[in-house]
Specification:
Blueprint (H helix, E strand, L loop, with lengths): L1 E12 L2 E12 L3 E5 L6 H9 L6 E6 L2 E2 L5 H7 L1 E4 L11 H12 L7 H7 L16 H14 L4 E4 L8 H12 L6 E5 L3 H7 L2 E6 L2 E6 L6 H8 L3 H7 L1
Parallel strand pairs: 3-8, 3-9, 6-7, 7-8
Antiparallel strand pairs: 1-2, 1-4, 4-5, 9-10
Helix pairs in contact: 3-5, 5-6
Bound molecules: adenosine-5'-triphosphate (ATP).
Adenosine-5'-triphosphate binds next to strand 2 and helix 1.
Length: 240
């Protein structure tokens, strides 16, 4: 059964249309990676699902309910958690406080307590009493994932997971995410195609605010993906 349904969703920034009548369903348990060039509309789409960017046209359904008009905090309480690009932790608070505040904000009961989150993301354990502002990029990303989990979500949205991180830090972040597979549905915006193909059960490629390609990584060729990435997919088909 689908957990999330986007129905002909159009998203704008003023006069600029960032996402054009996009339809997409995400099934429970899926790990869906969204790839695409800069400006393809990935972040805007994720923000609209989280309820922090308004939907200009179309509908968003989550667990069968029409949530199109719900504000962000209502969606968080309904089970959608977002880890934004830049990770936005409270820098003066400790890691423990950052995690606890997320649970208080969401007010959702569930399995993800602080000990369980630390068990799933063991690299957080030695950081609990440190100020979030002093952490490395990889550590911040792990805490941001932990914070999203503390909200006991049914769906976790992760923006630009590996952006700006060293290869070692990216490896650590993906080890954390691997521990969550099967426990929570994930939608991940990822610039690194190789990572996205290796990690996800489904790959969506966006170009200029539209879905150009959607499939299982094992069923997509690298050529297909590269063409879709640069928005050449349709042109290629017409020329053939
Ligand atoms: P990136 O990887 O660069 O973040 P993206 O695929 O996430 O790209 P978006 O950030 O969603 O793409 O941007 C989609 C379009 O909307 C782009 O044309 C971008 O310039 C525009 N846009 C994004 N944010 C704003 C904003 N706050 N005001 C005006 N236009 C914006």
């Amino acid at each position: 059964m689908s957990l999330l349904d986007l129905e002909t969703v159009t998203l704008r920034h003023g006069l600029l249309t960032a996402v054009h009548g996009l339809s997409l369903s995400v099934n429970e348990g899926e790990v869906l990676s969204i790839i695409g060039a800069n400006g393809a509309g990935k972040t805007t789409l994720l923000r609209a699902i989280a309820g922090v960017h308004p939907v200009a046209e179309g509908r968003i359904r989550f667990q069968g309910a029409d949530i199109t008009g719900w504000p962000g905090h209502a969606r968080q309480r309904g089970g959608i958690a977002m880890s934004p690009e830049g990770r936005r932790l409270f820098p003066d608070m400790t890691v423990r406080e950052n995690l606890q505040i997320a649970a208080e904000g969401a007010r959702r009961k569930g399995d993800w307590t602080l000990p369980r989150v630390v068990e799933a993301l063991p690299q957080i354990a030695p950081l609990l009493d440190r100020a979030a502002g002093g952490l490395s990029g990889g550590q911040r990303q792990a805490v941001a994932i932990g914070r999203a989990l503390m909200a006991n979500p049914a769906l976790i949205l992760l923006d630009e997971v590996s952006l700006g991180l060293s290869p070692v830090a990216v490896e650590g972040v993906y080890q954390s995410l691997a521990a969550l597979k099967g426990r929570v549905t994930m939608v991940i915006v990822e610039q690194d195609l190789t990572r996205a193909m290796a990690f996800s059960s489904r790959l969506v490629c966006m170009a200029e605010g539209r879905v150009e390609l959607d499939g299982r990584p094992s069923e997509l060729s690298r050529d297909q993906i590269t063409q879709a990435y640069f928005g050449l997919h349709k042109e290629g088909t017409q020329d053939a």
